[in-house]
Amino acid sequence: MEEPGLAYQWVLQLHSYLAYVALAVLFLAVANAIIGLVSNKMFLPQKDFRISLFALILCHLQLLVGLILFFVSPSGLNAIQSLGMGGMNSAARLLAVEHPFINIIALVLITIGWSRHKKFMEGNKKFKSIAIFYGLGLVLILSRIPWSQWF
Ligand code: HEM
């Protein structure tokens, strides 16, 4: 086996650390939207718009780094090619298939939530769009994190 390259190690570290930031801000955006929704608040450009946009940007950055990682990591495309879909155990399948696939879907949902919220005028509907779509995205992401190798 070849030594893992420097580029791979660098991208893996970035993906690993950025995950904390992206998940924390995504969680804040979901919590903020749920609070705004249940307490009938106004959707404020300074606070609510910014936190939702910040979460969107960080998640997209993480997606981009993840896509690069998929191609440079021995546990990404490489694993699928060398072991074949049927030859992977559940841990290998989580890294190479489930985590990337589910996270791309999560990012699509988050992006839909963002575009939908902009179409509405009422704060309530804006909060609802963010709460539901970002919330679903967060649940999907959390369901396929390789927890045991992350910590
Ligand atoms: C957007 C939300 C995402 C989050 C929060 C996330 C988080 C993580 C975390 C915490 C790890 C473990 C890192 C470690 O071992 O230190 C990981 C590994 C990995 N991620 Fe993601 N990820 C996301 C999206 C993606 C996407 C979209 C892809 C690919 C298309 C991807 C590809 C990978 C791969 C291939 C690994 C395994 C790398 C290795 O161990 O060599 N990730 N991710």
Distance between the termini: 25 Å
Question: Rough shape?
Answer: elongated
Number of domains: 1
Mean pLDDT equals: 96
Structural class: mainly alpha
Number of helices: 6
Transmembrane segments: 17-39, 51-72, 92-115, 127-147
Protein name: 50S ribosomal protein L27
Keywords: Membrane, Transmembrane, Transmembrane helix
Care to describe what's here?
This protein is an all-alpha fold. The protein has one domain (6-146). The chain is 81% helix and 0% strand. It contains six helices and no strands. It has helices spanning 6-38, 45-72, 77-83, 90-119, 123-143, 147-150. α4 runs antiparallel to α5 (123-143). The structure holds protoporphyrin IX containing FE. Residues 12, 15-16, 19, 22-23, 59, 62-63, 66-67, 69-70, 73, 75-76, 95, 99-100, 103-104, 107, 141, 145-146, 149-150 line the site of protoporphyrin IX containing FE (HEM). The chain crosses the membrane at residues 17-39, 51-72, 92-115, 127-147. It comes from Maribacter luteus. This is 50S ribosomal protein L27.
Quick rundown:
The chain crosses the membrane at residues 17-39, 51-72, 92-115, 127-147. With 151 residues, this protein is mainly alpha-helical.
Describe the SSE topology.
Layout (H helix, E strand, L loop, with lengths): L5 H33 L6 H28 L4 H7 L6 H30 L3 H21 L3 H4 L1
Bound molecules: protoporphyrin IX containing FE.
The site of protoporphyrin IX containing FE has 27 residues, from α1, α2, α4 and α6.
